[in-house]
Write a structure and sequence with these properties.
about 300 residues; alpha+beta; 5-stranded antiparallel beta sheet
C-alpha cells in the first residue's frame, strides 16, 4: 500500500504542506510589515513613559509611545520591546508606521538610538546562507525528503518510509536554530571581524531563578553605560548562570561595539570558550541527529535498489 507513484505523490503532497507552512510562517509578518510601510501612516513617536523590568518574563524595559494620526488624533501604545536593552528616556523620538484604523498595531520602523558606539563601523548584515538556514530550514527538509523518496518509488518499499527521518531532522533544526543561529552573542562571524570586543563593568540589577530538568540556574540583568552615555539594562547570557548573583554585584561584560545591544556577561576568554564549545556541541548534536535520521534510510534504500 502506498508504494510506487501513489506513495510518491502522497509524500510529495506532505512535503509541499511542510514547505508551505514554513514559508507562510516566515512571510506573514514580513508581508504585514511591507503592507504597513506601503499603505500605512508614518509619524514621529515620543517616548512618554518607561516601565521597570519584570523578570523572568520581561527582561527589557517596556515603554509607551505617543503619536498622532493625520487628523490630529493622539494615540498611545505600550511596547514590550524595541530598544533591545538600551533604556529609553522620556522625550526620545522614534519613527512609527500604523494604520489609522488600527493604531494599536503600530510598529517602530526607525530607531535612531540603536547604532554603533562612536568610532565603530556598522555591523554587516548576515550572509544569505545564514538567513536561509535560519528561517527556511523546514523548507529545505521538505525538498530533501521529496528527493529521497523518488528512488523508493522504484522499489517495493513505500516512499513514505522517509518520514521516519523527519522528527530527528526537525529536532536538529531546532538545536541549530536555538543554540547557534538565534543567539545574538554567538552569531557566526560576529566576533571575528576587524572590531574587537569591548569590555565594561556592569552592576547586577535583577536576579531570578529558573528551573529545568534536574537542574536550576540563576539568570540576571545588568546595567552599564556605553561610551556615548546610553544606558544598557537587560537580562544577558552569562558564563556563570549556575552561580547565584546578588543585586548590586559588579560583573564584567563583553559587548560588540558595532552593535552594543549584543552583550555577554563574562570576559573575552570565557566568551571565546562559549563560542568554541557551545557551537561545537550544538553542531555535533545536529550531525548525530541527522546521521540517526538518514543513515538507516539510506542503507535501506541501497538494499532495496540492489534487490530490485
Amino acid at each position: 500500500m502506498f508504494t510506487g507513484p501513489v506513495g510518491l505523490a502522497l509524500l510529495s503532497s506532505l512535503a509541499a504542506v511542510l514547505a508551505g507552512v514554513n514559508v507562510i510562517w516566515v512571510q506573514r509578518p514580513q508581508a504585514r510589515r511591507r503592507r504597513l510601510l506601503r499603505d500605512g501612516v508614518r509619524s514621529d513617536a515620543e517616548v512618554v513613559a518607561v516601565d521597570g523590568l519584570a523578570p523572568p518574563k520581561q527582561t527589557e524595559h517596556p515603554f509607551t509611545l505617543r503619536f498622532s494620526s493625520p487628523d490630529g488624533t493622539v494615540h498611545r501604545r505600550t511596547f514590550t520591546r524595541g530598544f533591545q536593552g538600551i533604556v529609553p528616556q522620556p522625550g526620545w523620538v522614534v519613527r512609527v508606521a500604523f494604520s489609522p484604523a488600527a493604531p494599536e498595531k503600530a510598529e517602530i520602523i526607525d530607531n535612531p538610538y540603536l547604532h554603533p558606539v562612536p568610532g565603530a563601523p556598522a555591523l554587516p548584515p548576515p550572509g544569505r546562507a545564514f538567513t536561509l538556514a535560519r528561517f527556511y530550514g523546514p523548507t529545505f527538509l521538505a525538498v530533501l525528503i521529496a528527493v529521497l523518496a523518488v528512488p523508493f518509488a522504484f522499489t517495493e518499499m513505500t516512499p513514505l518510509i522517509v518520514l521516519l527521518g523527519v522528527p530527528f531532522s526537525l529536532i536538529a533544526l531546532f538545536v541549530v536554530s536555538r543554540q547557534w543561529l538565534s543567539h545574538g552573542h554567538t552569531l557566526p562571524g560576529l566576533w571575528s571581524g576587524p572590531v574587537e570586543a569591548a569590555v565594561a563593568q556592569a552592576v547586577v540589577t535583577d536576579c531570578w531563578t529558573e528551573y529545568g530538568r534536574n537542574r536550576k540556574w540563576y539568570p540576571f540583568a545588568v546595567e552599564f553605560r556605553l561610551p556615548d552615555g546610553r544606558l544598557f539594562r537587560r537580562g544577558v547570557p552569562a558564563d556563570s548562570a549556575h552561580i547565584e548573583s546578588t543585586i548590586g554585584q559588579e560583573r564584567p561584560v563583553v559587548y560588540h561595539p558595532s552593535d552594543p545591544t549584543v552583550v555577554y556577561a563574562g570576559t573575552p576568554t570565557s566568551l571565546r570558550r562559549l563560542l568554541s564549545v557551545g557551537s561545537g556541541m550544538s553542531l555535533g548534536v545536529c550531525a548525530l541527529l541527522l546521521a540517526v535520521a538518514w543513515g538507516p534510510l539510506l542503507l535501506l534504500l541501497v538494499i532495496a535498489l540492489v534487490q530490485a
